[in-house]
Write a structure and sequence with these properties.
- It is a single chain.
- By secondary structure, this protein is of the alpha+beta class.
- The chain has one domain (27-98).
- Helices cover 35% and strands 17% of the residues.
- It is built from two helices and four strands; from the N terminus they run ααββββ.
- The chain has helices spanning 2-23, 30-42; strands spanning 68-69, 76-80, 83-87, 94-98.
- The protein has a four-stranded antiparallel beta sheet with strand order 1-2-3-4, with no helix packed on it.
- A hairpin with a 6-residue loop joins strand 1 (68-69) and strand 2 (76-80).
- The protein is globular, with a radius of gyration of 18 Å.
- Residues 1-23 form the signal peptide.
- InterPro entries: DUF1236 (IPR009642).
- It comes from Mesorhizobium muleiense.
Length: 99
Amino acid sequence: MKIHLVPAAAGLALLAGVGVATADQVIITPEQQTVVRQYVERHPLASISLLGVELNVGSTLPDTVELHEVPDVEYRYVVVDDRTVLVDPGTRRIVQVID
């Protein structure tokens, strides 16, 4: 009986971890996306290149990267490799990559 409990407990722990990861996801509303796209079009930035940084949601940008404000949106943006990246200014984690 004890042999069966260990895998079951491990499975529950994994499921609980997945639930926590999902709860941490940031959802950018379509309205916020529109505001960001329009602002970026009107205020273009030069694209930068970051060696060793993958442009994935959850990746952290170095402190050397200057983040730019978008009015009425809590996130900041930067253009990396010709892709607009929304970043949480508190954690510097990427919350969305806009192509």
